[in-house]
Write a structure and sequence with these properties.
The structure holds two protein chains of two kinds. Chain A is mostly helical. Chain A has seven helices and no strands. The relative contact order of chain A is 0.09. Chain B has one domain. Chain B is built from 23 helices and two strands. Chain B has a two-stranded antiparallel ribbon with strand order 1-2. The chains are: A mainly alpha, B mainly alpha. Chains A and B meet through helix 1, helix 2, helix 3 and helix 4 of A and helix 8, helix 9, helix 19, helix 20 and helix 21 of B.
C-alpha cells in the first residue's frame, strides 16, 4: 500500500470518526430512553461506524488515480495572510464595529492580494461599506451593530 | 375550477397585485443573489410589510420574492459558485464551470429559460392537480422518506465526480456529523456541543454553505494562484460571452425540461423534500438519460446538467405550495415561513382553504405564473449587466466574496464564535478541495441530516427496532432497490473498471 496525501486525509477522517463514535457513546440519554429502539445517540453511533467504514475502505483499497498537489504552485503566503486577516476581522467586528473593521479588512485583503491602485482600494472599501450599511440598515431595516458609529453619533 | 381560475386571475391581475409581483420578483432576485441571504431571509424580511396589505396581496408579494430569490440564488451559484440556498447547489455543478469557460451570459440565459419553463409547467400542474396530488404525498410514510433521502445522498455521491465515490461518501458522513451537532430535536439532549452554548442550537446551514462553497472557493483560487492552468481559467472569466442559446442547446433543453419539471413538481409536493432534493435528483436523473459523450461533460459545463436542476428547483417551488395550500403542511423551510405569515393573517391553510378563501387559494396559484413571466422579462435583459460581476479583478472579487460570507454570518448571529467556526470549516474544506473531495454531498447531507434522523426515528419506533421497514412497503422496497443499483454500479466500476 502506497502512502499518499489522500490516504493521510482518510486516516485523519478515520480517527475523527472513531472520536465521534466515542463521543456518541458518551451522550447522556434519559433513563426511560436507554432501552428504546431509538434515542438521542442511535443515529450518531451509526454515523460513527459509517465514517470509519468508508474512510477505512479508502485507506485499504488501492488508489488507482492518486492526486498529488505540487507545492511549488501553491500560494501559501497570500492564503495564510488572508486567513489571518479574516480571523482579526472576526475578532474585531463586534468590538470595533461593522464599518471600520469591514473597511480595514477590505483594504488589507486587496493589498495582500497584490492590488496597488489606491484609488480603487479606497473606493471599494470605506464608501462601499457605507453604501452597503445604508442599504441594509437604512432601507431594509436590518440591524447592524456598530459601537463606534453610535459613539460618534452617526448611527442611532 | 374555471370559476376559481377567473377569481384568481381577477385578483392577481389587479394593478396593486401586479405591482407586488414585480416588486417581489425584483427584490427577491437582488436579495437571493447575495450569498447567505436566501428566500427564507427575503420572505422573513417581507412579513412585516405584508401585514399592511390584504392577505391575498401579501401572499402574492411573498410568492414573488420566493421565485425571485430562487432565481437570484442561481445567479450567484453560476457567477461566484456561492449558492445562497441549498436548492441552487446543483446549479453550480455545471453553471460555474460554464462561467469559467467564458459562457457566463449563456449559463444565466439557460438558467432563466429553464426556471421559466419549469415554473410554468409546474404552475399548470398545480392548477390542474393540486387537490388530487396532495393524496400522493399523504401516502408517503417515514420509511419512504428515509429511503428517499438515502437515495438522494447515494445518487449525489455517485454522480458528484468520476472515481470519487468513497470520497463523496466520506463527505456525506461528514455533512451528517455536522448536522448532528446541537440539541436533539425530540429530547433536547445536547450532542457534540462540548459544553459550549454557541453550539447548542447546532451549526447553521448558511454558515456551512458559506464556508464550504463561497469561502473555500475563494481560498482555493488564491492558494492555486501559481498554477498555470488556473491562471488561464481566471483570464477566461473576463470573457462574458453571448446570452444567445444555440439551436442545438435549445434542443438539449427541450428534452430536459419536461422530465425535470415533472420530477421537480412531484418531489416538491412531498412535505420536507423540496427544491434541494428535486434539483439533485434531476441532476442525477439527467446524467442517466444522456449519452456517454454528454455524460463526460457533466460537472464541466453541460447544458443539460445546468438546465435539469434549474428546471426542477423552480418546479419544486410550485410543488411545495401544494401541501401548504391543501394540507396546511409546509413543503420546505420557505413555505414554513409563509405558513407563519398566513397564520398571522388569521388564515388556516388546509383542505378547506379553497372553499373558505377561494380568492387567496386561486390568486396565489395564478400569481405564480405571472411571477414566472415577470422574472423572465425582468431578468433576461439584465443578464449582461448581472454577468459583469465576473469582470471584477480577482484582487477585488475574492475579498468581496469573503466579506459577503462573513457579513452573512455576522447578520445572523452577531457572534464571533460563528465567524471563527466558519473560517475553520473553510480552511478544512479548502484542503479537502485540493485533493478532490467533493463538497456537494457534504451540503446535501447537512441539509437532510435532521430530517433523516427524524424519519429513521419514526420508522424504527413503528417497527419496534427492526430494520424490516426497509422492505416491508413496496414503495420503500423500490427506493432501496434503486439505492442498491447505484451502489452496485459503483462496486462494478471499482472492480471491473478500476475507477474507485
Amino acid at each position: 500500500m502506497k502512502i499518499n496525501s489522500v490516504k493521510i486525509i482518510s486516516l485523519l477522517f478515520f480517527i475523527l470518526s472513531a472520536f465521534y463514535l466515542y463521543t456518541a457513546h458518551q451522550i447522556q440519554v434519559f433513563t426511560f430512553d436507554e432501552g428504546a429502539p431509538f434515542n438521542a445517540k442511535t443515529f450518531p453511533i451509526y454515523l460513527g461506524y459509517a465514517g470509519m467504514f468508508f474512510s477505512g475502505l479508502k485507506i485499504v483499497l488501492p488508489d488507482n488515480k492518486p492526486i498529488e498537489v505540487d507545492p511549488t504552485y501553491l500560494e501559501f503566503r497570500k492564503t495564510i495572510l488572508l486567513v489571518l486577516t479574516m480571523i482579526v476581522y472576526g475578532a474585531t467586528i463586534l468590538k470595533v464595529g461593522f464599518f471600520l473593521s469591514t473597511s480595514l479588512f477590505l483594504v488589507l485583503s486587496y493589498y495582500f492580494l497584490g492590488e496597488r491602485r489606491w484609488k480603487y482600494i479606497i473606493i471599494f472599501s470605506f464608501p462601499f461599506v457605507a453604501v452597503f450599511m445604508y442599504l441594509l440598515h437604512g432601507v431594509l431595516a436590518v440591524y447592524l451593530r456598530d459601537p463606534l458609529l453610535k459613539y460618534i453619533g452617526i448611527m442611532g | 375550477m374555471i370559476e376559481g381560475i377567473l377569481i384568481g386571475l381577477k385578483t392577481a391581475l389587479s394593478f396593486q397585485n401586479l405591482m407586488m409581483v414585480m416588486i417581489g420578483c425584483f427584490a427577491g432576485t437582488i436579495i437571493g443573489m447575495l450569498p447567505g441571504l436566501g428566500p427564507m431571509t427575503a420572505i422573513a424580511l417581507m412579513i412585516p410589510i405584508t401585514y399592511g396589505f390584504e392577505p391575498a396581496t401579501g401572499l402574492i408579494l411573498m410568492a414573488g420574492v420566493y421565485y425571485g430569490a430562487v432565481f437570484g440564488g442561481s445567479t450567484s451559484s453560476i457567477l461566484i459558485n456561492a449558492p445562497g440556498v441549498p436548492g441552487t447547489v446543483a446549479t453550480s455543478f455545471d453553471g460555474y464551470p460554464m462561467a469559467q469557460q467564458g459562457k457566463a451570459g449563456k449559463a444565466l440565459a439557460i438558467a432563466a429559460y429553464s426556471s421559466f419553463a419549469g415554473g410554468t409547467i409546474s404552475a399548470i400542474f398545480l392548477l390542474i392537480a393540486a387537490p388530487s396530488l396532495s393524496k400522493v404525498s399523504l401516502s408517503f410514510r417515514s420509511p419512504d422518506y428515509f429511503g428517499l433521502m438515502i437515495l438522494g445522498l447515494t445518487a449525489v455521491a455517485a454522480f458528484s465526480s468520476k472515481g470519487n465515490f468513497l470520497k463523496a461518501m466520506m463527505m456525506c458522513v461528514l455533512g451528517l456529523m455536522l448536522a448532528s451537532v446541537g440539541q436533539d430535536t425530540l429530547s433536547d439532549i445536547p450532542r457534540f456541543t462540548f459544553n459550549t452554548m454557541n453550539l447548542s442550537d447546532g451549526i447553521s446551514f448558511v454558515l456551512v454553505v458559506m464556508a464550504t462553497f463561497a469561502m473555500s472557493e475563494a481560498l482555493t483560487i488564491i492558494i492555486k494562484g501559481n498554477d498555470p492552468s488556473k491562471a488561464a481559467k481566471q483570464i477566461s472569466l473576463t470573457d462574458l460571452g453571448s446570452i444567445k442559446v444555440s439551436k442545438e442547446e435549445t434542443k438539449q433543453m427541450a428534452a430536459t425540461i419536461p422530465r425535470s419539471s415533472i420530477l421537480g413538481f412531484i418531489i416538491g409536493v412531498l412535505p420536507g423534500a423540496g427544491a434541494t432534493i428535486a434539483s439533485f435528483l434531476a441532476y442525477g436523473m439527467e446524467r442517466n438519460f444522456v449519452n456517454s459523450e454528454e455524460k463526460e461533460k457533466f460537472g464541466k459545463g453541460s447544458v443539460q446538467g445546468l438546465s435539469a436542476p434549474e428546471t426542477a428547483n423552480n418546479a419544486a417551488c410550485s410543488g411545495s405550495f401544494v401541501p401548504l395550500l391543501t394540507l396546511g403542511i409546509p413543503g420546505s423551510g420557505t413555505t414554513a415561513v409563509m405558513l407563519g405569515a398566513l397564520l398571522g393573517f388569521g388564515i388556516q391553510p388546509g383542505p378547506r382553504l379553497y372553499e373558505t378563501n377561494p380568492d387567496i387559494f386561486w390568486s396565489v396559484i395564478m400569481s405564480m405564473y405571472i411571477g414566472m413571466v415577470v422574472l423572465l422579462i425582468l431578468n433576461l435583459p439584465l443578464i449582461p449587466y448581472i454577468a459583469r460581476i465576473l469582470a471584477v479583478p480577482r484582487t477585488f472579487l475574492i475579498p468581496m466574496i469573503l466579506f459577503f460570507s462573513v457579513t452573512g454570518i455576522y447578520l445572523m448571529s452577531f457572534n464571533n464564535f460563528d465567524i471563527f467556526l466558519m473560517i475553520g470549516i473553510a480552511v478544512v474544506a479548502t484542503i479537502l478541495r485540493l485533493y478532490d473531495f467533493p463538497m456537494p454531498p457534504l451540503i446535501l447531507a447537512f441539509v437532510l441530516g435532521g430530517l433523516m434522523e427524524e424519519n429513521l426515528r419514526r420508522s424504527l419506533l413503528i417497527s419496534d427496532g427492526s430494520w424490516s421497514f426497509l422492505w416491508s412497503r413496496p414503495l420503500t422496497l423500490c427506493i432501496m432497490i434503486a439505492i442498491l443499483i447505484i451502489v452496485g454500479w459503483q462496486i462494478y466500476n471499482s472492480f471491473f473498471k478500476k475507477k474507485l
